[in-house]
Write a structure and sequence with these properties.
With 456 residues, the protein is of the alpha+beta class. It is 53% helix and 17% strand.
């Protein structure tokens, strides 16, 4: 019993209400003990005797017998203090002495005092015309607690407590469902995951529960994306390996079956096998490199990098290829750029990959521009081409591993991401920078890189 969250919340709310009602009952009981009905009746009697004496003070003060009779008939004690606060009249002189009255912080004239032996007296006082102080007192009654509880407390509190408890149980049930039901939906969704019919859990209940639900939905979305990425990765790797493996298997079979009879045919078969194995080996190295970069375990040799020299070397490296394709390759940067803290070889790998991609998809008589300038505490670099461009819907996935834009779009040509762009992104981020891309079909593509001059 009470194993579910809903039942425990319900029980917790009920216990809180019960404790609150008990505290209220104790406070009311203490109040009744200190101010029972009998005490209030005695205080009213004291006030009446005081007012009667004040109606004709000379008569009662001068006639002690009349004052004693009034005291006995009303069962009160009358004391008169002079201006020196000494008792000059006391109708019960055999009783312990009562101190001179003082007004309390609430300025009440009816209050409680203790005599010389510690007994409590209820009294009311007033100042007489001659400056003396009249005190009318009576012992504070001792009322049994059980009688107070039974007579004045038990019935009303019991009724109010039962009503409040029933209402609190209903309210506690509603609150427990308000909190527990959304959490239960999250639990059920988590148990049923993964499922093809998995849907986002609606965010309901308190703000904290809604935040938890939204975080769960976000986590499920990220897991879906990760699983899709893994499936795409396996499919892409299989596809990329299938072609070279097929070539290697076919030409190896030709050599084994003596289909390649001539030395030239055998040499061609061996050359294909070698080229495809080199391609597979390079892919394996790229995958390993990418995995290390993503895990943060890649060996980064950080030093001061001369960007001017690095970019000039990239232009010199690809100039023959650009001239062969009749593409204008330009460097738009100041003669001297500030030194950058980074791995020169890795940064050269990024720029070489981007320029190589631009050359692949820039038609003859096109142009590729490498731009660099300082922007505050960062270096801003870009590689812009006048190629076919990339469709807008393909841009968010352009840096994914093995992602290829559909060749049938953008006029039959598009930037191929492969592993190069994924590695470039990881290298830039390892330097604390950011890489982005903007493109328009038919108008070319621009890759933008921002790198901090100093690593934080």
């Amino acid at each position: 019993m009470f194993t579910s969250l809903r039942s425990r919340l319900w029980l917790s709310y009920a216990l809180v209400v019960t404790v609150a009602l008990s505290i209220v009952a104790i406070v009311l009981l203490a109040f009744l003990i200190r101010n029972p009905v009998l005490s209030r009746q005695i205080q009213q009697q004291l006030t009446a005797v005081r007012e009667q004496i004040l109606g004709n003070p000379q008569r009662y003060i001068n006639d002690h017998a009349l004052l004693d009779e009034l005291s006995r008939s009303n069962k009160v004690r009358v004391i008169v203090f002079d201006q020196s606060r000494s008792a000059v009249i006391d109708t019960q002189p055999d009783k312990p002495q009562i101190p001179f009255p003082r007004r309390n912080i609430f300025n009440r004239i009816s209050q409680v005092a203790r005599d010389s032996q510690g007994s409590a007296w209820l009294y009311s006082f007033s100042r007489l015309p001659n400056g003396q102080v009249l005190v009318v007192a009576a012992p504070r009654p001792r009322v049994p607690v059980l009688n107070i509880f039974a007579d004045e407390f038990f019935g009303p509190i019991l009724q109010a407590g039962v009503i409040a408890l029933l209402l609190s149980l209903v309210l506690a049930f509603a609150l427990s469902r308000w909190v527990a039901d959304p959490l239960q939906q999250v639990v059920v969704a988590a148990r049923n995951y993964p499922s093809e019919e998995m849907r986002s859990v609606p965010a309901r209940g308190p703000r904290e529960v809604q935040e938890l639900t939204r975080a769960f939905n976000s986590m499920v979305g990220r897991v879906h994306d990760s699983q899709r990425s893994q499936r795409d990765f396996v499919a892409n790797v299989s596809h990329e390996l299938k072609t070279p493996l097929t070539s290697i298997q076919g030409f190896a079979q030709a050599i084994l079956d003596d289909t390649a009879e001539t030395p030239e045919a055998r040499k061609q078969a061996a050359q294909v096998i070698y080229n495809e194995s080199v391609r597979m080996y390079r892919m394996a190295l790229d995958l390993l490199d990418l995995a290390r970069l993503e895990a943060g375990t890649a060996d980064m040799k950080m030093a001061d990098v001369d960007l001017s020299a690095l970019l000039k070397s990239i232009v010199e490296k690809f100039s023959p290829q650009a001239q062969k394709k009749k593409v204008d390759l330009q460097l738009d940067a100041p003669e001297t750029l500030p030194l950058l803290s980074g791995d020169g070889d890795r940064l050269a790998q990024v720029f070489a990959n981007l320029v190589d991609n631009a050359l692949k998809f820039t038609p003859p008589n096109g142009r590729i521009t490498i731009f660099a300038e300082r922007a505050g505490a960062e270096m801003e670099l870009s590689i812009t081409d006048t190629g076919a461009g990339v469709p807008e819907e393909a841009l968010p996935r352009l840096f994914d591993r093995f992602y290829q834009v559909d060749p049938s779009r953008a006029g039959g040509g598009a930037h191929g991401a492969g592993l190069g762009l994924a590695i470039a992104k990881e290298i830039v981020e390892a330097h604390g920078g950011k890489i982005g891309v903007r493109s328009q079909v038919g108008h070319g593509t621009t890759f933008t890189i921002r790198l901090p001059l100093e690593r934080k």
